[in-house]
Design a protein that fits this description.
The protein has 723 residues and is α+β, with helices and mostly antiparallel strands. Helices cover 34% and strands 24% of the residues. The chain folds into 3 domains: 376 residues, Glycosyltransferase (Alpha/alpha barrel); 160 residues, Sandwich (Jelly Rolls), CATH 2.60.120; 161 residues, Jelly Rolls (Sandwich), CATH 2.60.120. Strands 13, 14, 15, 16, 17, 18, 19 and 20 form an 8-stranded antiparallel sheet that branches. A 6-stranded antiparallel sheet has the order 7-6-9-4-11-12, with no helix packed on it.
Length: 723
């Protein structure tokens, strides 16, 4: 029996030391389990309870209901999906008395201590059942306040709730009652409709009567002289071949109707719409461009196939509404609108008053973008190194399919970048696309994925990559907090546990990006900064007796933790190898950096165990054999041998081959599953935390890419040694 699985299930039992086979199986398993599903589009009301910059929902009911009186109640209701019945860490700030119910059970009741400080945060651990969990919050008005903030305990680990009733199923957010003078006798819950409760729920789902008499574009945008807007739906034309259909309806102002890529109707003034058109079989986009006139604005449109109406459907499958039309505008009448370009739902469009996005014919309701893929199309630091490994593995095994998968992932990130910044400003701060990049406050949020963005853009044409690269470079160079000597450290973060600390991890979160941005721009300030960072971090984190790095330096205590965490040390030597590969030969810091590389490699070599692995805590053999650090030591040793950075390479050659065999025997099974990768960490001054509270995960993205990169360097090393 191996450490993580039976020996006969190991990769080495199936393939021996065939590095290409290991790369192929791991890469294809990853891509197969993370398909490129498109994003979700949800109806979203700006009149509801919005999430703020800290990603919690925040509501002051005094603003919603200024006439409410003391001792009245408002109830908010939402649901949350939980796949496996795990716990949820929930955070609440009380402006006044609050009760929180989950699945009908009271799980939190505020006290005068909670209510005394309207800025204090209080965490609750909530046991959830598998499936939908219904939450109800009762807010009580006092002279001191009426409402609160609630939701995720950490914006970087954001989650959101959905409206709980069939009437709005799929919209993000909470529905809430108006003020009432007595408590509810029965709490709303699973299976109940809004009608069942006998209550009026907000935000409103219908226009007031006066607005219903207007054209929909006036309802949505008001009267905007010399403006145009676009409506979009999809229609299913079932007549075989090319069928004849009838357009019917009316319009206020001039109108153009396009089906597919063909303009089928145009009128220069208000009037009734009646025309015969010919359309080929299939589902086609129907787009209407309508202009604003003095008194009204909008259109009504149907398409008849004989006596039957052609069915319309939402062009982007908007969840949370039954509406089949979405609307975009307003634009200046002189604007040259490319209707095909407008159908790119990853993009915002410049309009009158700035960028805009698609809306619904509901009060202050929008279409909102959500990337709900666990791993595809996301931007975070473990995925940065995962895609880095996938890219070079795909090149090594000659898989154009996997390379295209990576390109598509990166391109999606670029395509949605401008939307994410607009979404952040539009809805209060918390985005469901690029939530890290749009709320950037640390190197974790940008450096690793920014690095792979530049790496992929070296080999493939990526539209818009430079915009994100410049955004990341500006953050790292001009906004990231530094010590007086210019070394990065962590301060003013959303995650307050990290305040006033320096993490060895941040070498990887900064140096590879700075190296690649230097290569892109030719500007030496970036490579100089990368060199400065490594030497600055070494000054605070190096453990001379072991010749390895401590995980964290705590400036509050003015000391390093003294714990040589495996992956943290992997990040250090991995990043230094990236730097040395790009650093000019005559750079003034090169001798010091080469000396540091050799010293660290010596320290790591001494801590490799008999099996060939390194451990979760490098100097504690009883801690579990850790896959990501083992892979990074393979990668770095192999590069050191090839580039001549290691003056006596023989011991390192043996170490690399021993470690690669160990990974294939201990950590990688025959199906390409990767075991023994430590999950994302906090930090501690005791090794017990790393050993007992940081367990390993299966197929964790903190390790998959590193394993692949280790294999790629193994291939290069074997070619090098043959020469």
């Amino acid at each position: 029996m191996g450490y993580y699985f039976e020996d006969h299930n190991s990769m080495i039992s199936q393939t021996g030391m065939q590095v290409e086979k290991t790369l192929d199986v791991i890469a294809r398993r990853y891509v197969g389990f993370n398909p490129p599903h498109p994003p979700t589009h949800r109806a979203y009301s700006k009149r509801g309870i919005l999430r703020g910059k800290d990603f919690r929902y925040q509501v002051d009911f005094n603003q919603f209901f200024p006439n409410a009186v003391a001792e009245q109640y408002v109830y908010a209701w939402a649901k949350y999906w939980n796949e496996n019945g795990t716990e949820l860490k929930f955070d609440v700030t009380c402006y006044g008395p609050i009760l929180i119910y989950c699945n009908g059970q009271c799980i939190f009741k505020s006290t005068i201590l909670h209510e005394r400080n309207g800025d204090a945060r209080h965490s609750i651990i909530i046991a959830l059942k598998a499936g939908w969990n219904h939450f109800v919050i009762r807010f009580k008005k006092t002279r001191a306040g009426f409402g609160g903030k609630f939701g995720t305990w950490l914006g970087k680990l954001h989650y959101y709730f959905l409206m709980p009733t069939v009437e709005r199923d799929g919209q993000e957010g909470w529905i809430f009652t108006g003020p009432m003078s007595s408590e509810l006798a029965t709490l709303p819950g699973a299976g109940m409709t809004e009608k069942d409760t006998g209550l009026k729920w907000y935000p409103e789902t219908s226009w007031e009567k006066a607005r219903l008499k207007m054209g929909q574009l006036q309802r949505i945008y008001g009267l905007v002289p010399d403006a145009v807007a676009v409506g979009w739906t999809k229609a299913l034309f079932l007549h075989p071949g090319i069928g004849e259909y009838t357009l019917k309806g009316r319009h206020f102002g001039s109108i153009t109707v396009q089906i597919g890529s063909k303009e089928v109707y145009q009128a220069g003034a208000s009037g009734r719409l009646a025309a015969t058109i010919k359309v080929p079989f299939g589902q086609h986009d129907v787009m209407v461009k309508s202009s604003c006139q003095d008194t009204d604005w909008g259109f009504e449109l149907s398409i008849q196939n004989g006596s039957e109406a052609v069915s319309f459907s939402s062009p982007c499958n908007v969840v949370g509404t039954s509406q089949v039309w979405i609307y975009l505008g307003p634009f200046a009448a002189s604007a040259r609108l490319d209707l095909a370009r407008l159908r790119d739902l990853c993009k915002v469009t410049p309009g009158i008053g700035g960028d805009t996005y698609w809306r619904l014919d509901l009060p202050d309701a929008w279409v909102r973008l959500y990337n709900e893929n666990p791993l595809y199309g996301r931007w975070n630091y473990p995925l940065g190194v995962t895609l880095y490994g996938l890219l070079h593995s795909a090149k090594a095994i000659g898989s154009t399919e996997i390379q295209q998968y990576i390109v598509d992932h990166i391109q999606y990130c670029c395509d949605t970048f401008r939307y994410a910044l607009w979404d952040r400003d539009q809805y209060g701060g918390a985005t469901a696309v690029h939530h890290l990049l749009s709320s950037i406050d640390s190197l974790d949020d940008c450096g690793s994925f920014g690095s792979v963005l530049l790496e992929v853009a070296r080999y493939f044409p990526i539209r818009g990559f430079k915009d994100i690269a410049d955004f990341v470079a500006d953050y790292i160079s001009n906004k990231q907090i530094r010590l007086p000597d210019g070394t990065f450290f962590r301060k003013n973060l959303m995650h307050v546990f990290h305040e006033n600390t320096m993490w060895v991890d941040d070498l990887y979160m900064s140096i590879p990006f700075l190296c690649r941005y230097y290569r892109l721009t030719g500007d030496r300030q970036y490579i100089d900064d990368a060199a400065r960072q490594f030497l600055g971090f070494k000054k605070y984190l190096f453990i001379p007796e072991l010749k390895v790095m401590s995980h964290v330096y705590d400036f509050k205590r003015q000391m390093a933790t003294g714990i040589p965490w495996g992956r943290g040390n992997g990040w250090a030597i991995f990043s230094l190898s990236e730097l040395l590969a790009v650093l000019p030969e005559k750079h003034e810091q090169r001798p010091a950096l080469l000396a540091a590389f050799r010293e660290l490699c010596e320290g790591y070599l001494a801590l490799q165990d008999e099996s060939g692995m390194w451990h979760q805590v490098l100097n504690v053999p009883d801690s579990y054999p850790e896959t990501s650090c083992t892979s990074m030591f393979i990668y770095s040793f192999a590069r050191g041998i090839q580039h001549g950075w290691l003056e006596q390479p023989d011991a390192y050659i043996k170490s690399v081959f021993k470690a690669w065999a160990a990974l294939n025997r201990i950590s990688i099974d025959k199906n390409g599953n990767v075991y023994g990768v430590c999950r994302g960490s906090e930090f501690s001054f005791t090794p017990e935390y790393y050993m007992k509270e940081l367990p390993w995960n299966l197929n964790d993205t903190h390790g998959i890419g590193i394993v692949l990169l280790a294999g790629v360097e193994m291939l290069k090393l074997m070619k090098h040694l043959k020469k």
